[in-house]
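Shipment paperwork, digital attachment
Item: protein structure file
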Amino acid sequence: MELQHRMPLLPEEAEMVSPHLAVGSSDGGLTFFNASGPIFTCREDDARAVRFAAAVLTSPDLGLAKPSEIARVLGRHRNRVHEYRKRYREGGAAALDVKRRGPRGPSKFKGARLARAQTYLNAGTPNRTVAERVGVSEFTIRNALKAHRLVRPDRRRDSAQDTETPPSTPRQRSTVDATCAGGVAVKRDVDRALAQVGMLAEARPRFEPAEAVANAGVLVALPALLEQGLVDVGQQVYGAMKHGYFGLASMLLSFGVMALLRIKSIEGLSTHSPGEFGRVLGLDRAPEMKTARRKLAELAGRGRALEFSRAFSERWAEEDPDALGYLYIDGHVRPYHGRTCVLPKTHVPRRRLCMPATTDYWVNDANVEPLLFVTAPANAGLLTMMDTELIPEIHRLAGDDRRVTLIFDREGWSPERFKTWHTAGVDVITYRKGTSRDWRRRCFHKVTVEVGGRQVVYLLGERMVRVARGFRMREVRRLCDNGHQTSVMTTRRDLSLETVARRMFSRWQQENFFRYMRHEFALDHLPTTAVEPADAERSVPNPAVKEQKREVSKVKAQLTKAEQRYGQQAYDNPEQQRHTVRGFKISHAALGQEIRRLRQTCEQLESEIKALPARVPIREVMDGVPVIRLERERKTITDTVKMVAYRAETQLANLVGPLLPDRDDEARKFMRQVFALPADLLPDYAKRQLVVRLHSMANPRSNRALRVLCEVLNDFNVCYPKTNLRLVLEAPEPR
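Attachment content:
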């Protein structure tokens, strides 16, 4: 008999379950007690919690109660308590869930299928069509609508087309963009859902009234981009992209706008607001970085990048055939800093180093505007590329019956080639390579030449010079102030001295073009590090010959030192001891023997060099390493878009240049400032207009120039691609 109760402090309503456990019921709740006080509480109608208590409190490890004792208090059979314990041991608390009986809801029409049906209904699709697309009966769709599991929204007028809708502010747009459920600025869920299932070719531009959209001033360049053929040529070559939210037109415009806004790589998209950029494109947001990469890879996968670039060259040649009269040619070396690929090395002039790189040869027209470019295989030289690639392409653009004049640096000096080209209808203007005698000062006279819009006085002279057998060229020289004479050679005899000098010295504008493209458009940037197979049969200098020549140089150096020692010994020979040469040779027999050995070694190495082939296929040099090169498709596409953007910027700079005090220095800088301006976007679908109201620039003079530029561009009557909205540019009223 116990002298003291083990749980002396219990509520009045508590009932003893066992000597170690009690349970109390109050206000619909159950509370279990042990000697220390309450240990578990739950509601009586919470079946899962009651089962959990029965399984845990009857555990042998705790020793609080037996299953039969708990079953008696809870009003259940003891077998049920044993079942709860077994389920808890095997599956934990989740295994104690109450299984519903009776109807379990729809077995097929739920989850993703239900969401797809709602997406189609939001787009206004009929019930029968929705049922066919999601794979259920029309009766199922109607029942779901009655049960409010599906909702057919009212077809209201698009808010973007409501001209009375007040424009959104940057703060409002930022808040909405940040709280979008699908991601930052993802608002057109229906279009994206349709694109995901392949039912939307591409999202149509849809503008909404908005105030102070960042960088919306870049829409000033839209007429110029379309005039250059960015969208038309892209559709002509590529047709269309795979069905998706971002189509061909939106991606080409994205790449073009990125170039004008100085977003120098696809990775740079991550530093710009996608919502604001998207509003410039007429979409909810701009493509994110991985999407832009995927779309660029899709275009590259079609293998039409060269055709894409050539189509622009043909378009520009047809629009301005006179610009093909003089063509500037020069190479641009793009260094490669990666460690993934083994690329051929070449000299990088601006760094004065020999390093891995690729070489592009650019052709600029008479106005020094880019016309075309080709990538040299394994950094081939200028003469090789002119013979194999450039001159045939120039003839194709200009016509075989038209003579053209090529202007290039002394790297292309070759009188024999000049003779051949002259017969084929190609004239040249270039610098003379090598040394020659100076002309007398009386051979020169003053000539006024206009270079870059400025009047310059040169001292020029000319004469005919024989440069090859049966071939004479015209030499024009300029006498500099320091007495240096710069020699210019040409096959054109009909040009005046002034024209030859002006055309040759204007070649530096092409160097300025390369520098501007590197700094402003990131011409050296590689859009991808992917590689592709290269020509394994391409011949390269035999490395064995190079190694043998290195050995010959070492042996000759040793031979020279030995001969010097031998001669020094002969000079210092004491005649009292050795009166004859024979005696001297006998006394220095070891040194003489070494000289003979070194001479024999040199002769042997030189004979081995003659037996080796001078050039071998590159596959024999790589020792099993794959012969590869950097992928060209994506590089060609991005470089072509940058070339189009540069020409568009030049077109705008030429329009605004006369309105600025210093035309050459300010025009491009002015346009960069215009592109970065915020602007209000005010679409008027009733009048079919997209009004771009630009914000003010820094001073009244700039505002006046901007207003005149907008008036000129409005006369183009350009419609935004894929819409019927005519672009109307409005600048601030000048004072």
